[in-house]
Amino acid sequence: MTLDSKIPSGPLAEKWDRHRFDMKLINPANKRKYSVIVVGTGLAGASAAATMAELGYNVTALCYNDSARRAHSIAAQGGINAAKNYQNDGDSIWRLFYDTVKGGDYRSREANVYRLAQVSNNIIDQCVAQGVPFAREYGGYLDNRSFGGAQVSRTFYARGQTGQQLLLGAYSALMRQVGLGKVDLYTRHEMMDVVLVDGHARGIVARDMVTGKVQSFAADAVILATGGYSNVYFLSTNAIACNVTAAYRAYKKGAAFANPAFVQIHPTCIPVSGEHQSKLTLMSESLRNDGRIWVPKKKGETRNPNDIPEDERDYYLERKYPSFGNLSPRDISSRSAKEVCDEGRGVGPTGYGVYLDFRDAINRLGRDVIEARYGNLFQMYERITGEDPYQVPMRIYPALHYTMGGLWVDYNLMSTIPGLHVLGEANFSDHGANRLGASALMQGLADGYFVIPYTIGDYLAKSGGGEKVTTDHPEFKKAEEDVRARIGKLLDLNGSRTVVSIHRELGHIMWNYVGMARNEEGLKKALEQIPKLREEFWENAKVVGDGESVNQALERAGRVADFLEFAELLVYDALNREESCGGHFREEYQTEDGEALRNDEDYAYVAAWEFTGVGEKPILHKEPLEFENVKLQTRSYK
Amino acid sequence: MKLKLHIWRQKSTQDKGKMVTYEVDGIIEDMSFLEMLDVLNEKLILNEEEPVAFDHDCREGICGACSLTINGIPHGPEKETTICQLHMRHFKDGDEIYVEPFRARAFPVLRDLVTDRTAFDRIMQAGGFVSANTGGIPDANAIPISKKDADLAMDNAACIGCGACVAACKNASAMLFVSAKVAQYAYLPQGQTERKRRVLNMVAQMDREGFGNCTNYYECEAVCPKGISVASIALMNRDFLRASLSEEKALDR
């Protein structure tokens, strides 16, 4: 396996323009002779499918939800970044690029990130033209806010529902193409495998989740836009069905998986209330603008928080990071919360929570102002916890939220399997070791609207995978048989444990040993426990029902089976990276003050892993990261 | 707490279906309604019974997948709350709860509480968009839009497409859903070019799907988890009338 990033030559700011000129074109009349499969209809998938159909390609799009409008992109609250500089506060493409590389702790590719910043402006134009109702000022122009500690206001938003509105924009464009007959859309279809013919990705096998029918789809190229893998931790802010199956199947067929250990843990989520919990809910980070985070100084404190006097409270972020305080970056805030809870000073019934207190803000600004700013979030909190945050401090705790790692792709967003392209959260490309707030939406739409429509043309024009294939090709028949056999094996599971209980146990292993702080000993323990749990799954799990109708237990079993293999890959990556950077904190590698200690000498590379067999150690390939335009510095928020 | 659940079970669209009674124990008030059903399903699986199928995904009230009728009310008793955000503290020990799918002829049951709501997607395909191809777009700030109009558009764009409005309506009318989309674009300059065609095409498709008409009961507004106002239906009726009298014609499909 060779990793050729295909980064165009020339100065950073000219790379994308030059590349667009150098790429081959397909004439408009010939585009209809090509077909592309898009798996997933979130921001990246829907925007890619719609745009390619507009260009004239024949697109087949699949999603596991009942409608393309329900992908988890919909849950993003905060906003989307762009380098418009509408606020005249010194933003620029270069600054967005620089902030993203720095925020990612220098573990992303300069050229990709620069392109992302370049097209960010087109995204906003496109969304407004589609009728996305972004927030506006009284003069009628677009409003912006500062987000996630950025020093400029570059975030566009639509109330607390930006992801929803952007997805509905992309979904509308997709629906238009479905209505015009340019996109064949298959909802309630789950991809089970990718099919290679002569080494090129030429199609997929999917299961109809209503009838159980296993069916092949053939095309000239395949695009995966299947999201992240946070649910390998069982509890995360991801939707219940989010899974790694599509990406993992591609990995097993030869696509390299890059930086799986880079996961983002978001500091402001509602804490776990008990074992029954099925998922976690994120509270927008904007709350940290006015809320103060604290825990009692005393261990095992039992008093009502409002009865704890000021001098017995520890505002630990303000204490440790006086200049950024409660607005310290996500990874630092999260880790600090874990530290105080591990010391036994956590709050709430489980001891895994910290207070986010609005008392001072309410006294300073008045309840009305706080209500205007955060009313809907306070309501959401009360709905879930039954506590009134105007009266008692909120309780928050970090939770898995986003995964920076993903399938390795080159500058054209193609994986190491020719013809298999990967977009959005499913690829690894732009966020390095840590993603900035309001950048996930930007990347999904950049990939879908403005990158893949160009680069797919180049791949196809250069003859792509060669001659047309149909689903009668033996490779498809073989893949279908494999899928049917696997489904049969899952349906035969007749042990004494439910799949969910095993998934929950996997989550405990991952959270405890591969969570916010990792060390060699813990990671090795995880490597012992995961294969045992996988064995337990295949020996002792139970799946009821049949394969010919809606069977949600079967769907879950298939996803958990893949998580149980994928988890090991994540641990190998965490073990290999003997440094702390971004979301990856290795306890052995920290400064005297307990800050992350990066090792640029030895680890300024992308770790791309090659599959060698289930339970076998994968092969590591390194793509060195070269920084020609930014100087590597130590992040400091003191 | 201990609860008695009466749940609609139906093997497939063709199956007749029936209410089945289950008891669940050990329910705590911090659980969401769906987590309570998770508890039931875990128990059923271990008893060799098939779990109750229900649509759900984000579990934070925004994806619009969850779609249960609780004691006759789509999304249950709490105002502006999807069923995934309804917590068990609103129930008490010993309660009997009736759980049914969103019922409407245009939403056939696929299994148990899972319905086919693709009719909504087809209405969107008929006109729920602005025809703006990717690229070649003017700067986002080229057209100022008054804050009031942008806010009104956003109020309507908040629709999550769950279908509770249809399930609550005795006519199974989809007018609130369709009008929310029509109104979102009607308030924005970007929506004006296709304004007449859009309303004609979307309403025509709505009728084709078998949704009923609006007879002003406003049950839809009462159950809408996003608080979409029936004022949008009035707007759509005005737009529809105006478009019908113009030279625009709905596309034959």
Class by alpha and beta content of chain A: alpha/beta
- First CA to last CA of chain B: what distance? 53 Å
The gyration radius over C-alpha positions of chain B equals 20 Å
Helix content of chain B: 25-40%
> Residue ranges of chain A: pLDDT <50 for 5 or more in a row?
none
Shape of chain A: globular
Oligomer: heterodimer
Rg of chain A, please?
24 Å
**Given this structure, which CATH class of the largest domain in chain B is correct?**
Mainly Alpha
Shape of chain B: elongated
Structural class, from helix and strand content of chain B?
alpha+beta
User: What's the order of the H and E elements of chain B?
Assistant: EEHEEEEEHHHHHHH
What is the arithmetic mean of pLDDT of chain B?
A: 96
Q: What does it look like?
A:
The complex is a heterodimer of chains A (about 650) and B (about 250). Chain A is globular. Among the domains of chain A are: about 270-400, Flavocytochrome C3, Chain A, domain 1, CATH 3.90.700; about 475-600, Fumarate reductase/succinate dehydrogenase flavoprotein-like, C-terminal domain (Methane Monooxygenase Hydroxylase, Chain G, domain 1, Up-down Bundle). In chain A, about 35% of the residues lie in helices and about 15% in strands. The two termini of chain A are about 45 Å apart. In chain A, the strands form six sheets. In chain A, strands 5-2-1-9-17 form a five-stranded parallel beta sheet. Chain A has helices at about 15-20, 30, 45-55, 95-105, 110-130, 160-180, 245-250, 315-320, 330-345, 360-365, 365-385, 440-460, 475-490, 500-515, 520-540, 550-575, 600-605; strands at about 35-40, 60, 80, 155, 185, 190-195, 200-210, 215-220, 220-225, 255-260, 265-270, 290-295, 315, 355, 395-405, 405, 420, 495-500, 540, 605-610, 620-625. Chain B has about 250 residues and is α+β, with helices and mostly antiparallel strands. Chain B folds into two domains: about 5-110, Ubiquitin-like (UB roll) (Roll), CATH 3.10.20; about 120-245, Orthogonal Bundle (Fumarate Reductase Iron-sulfur Protein, Chain B, domain 2). Chain B is about 35% helix and about 10% strand. Chain B contains eight helices and seven strands. Chain B has helices at about 35-45, 120-125, 145-155, 165-170, 175-185, 195-210, 220-225, 230-245, and strands spanning about 5-10, 20-25, 70, 75, 95-100, 110, 115. Chain B has a five-stranded mixed beta sheet. The longest helix of chain B is centred in the C-terminal third of the chain and has 15 residues, at about 230-245. Chain B is elongated, with a radius of gyration of 20 Å. At the A-B interface, helix 3, helix 5, helix 6, helix 11 and helix 12 of A face helix 1, helix 2 and helix 3 of B.
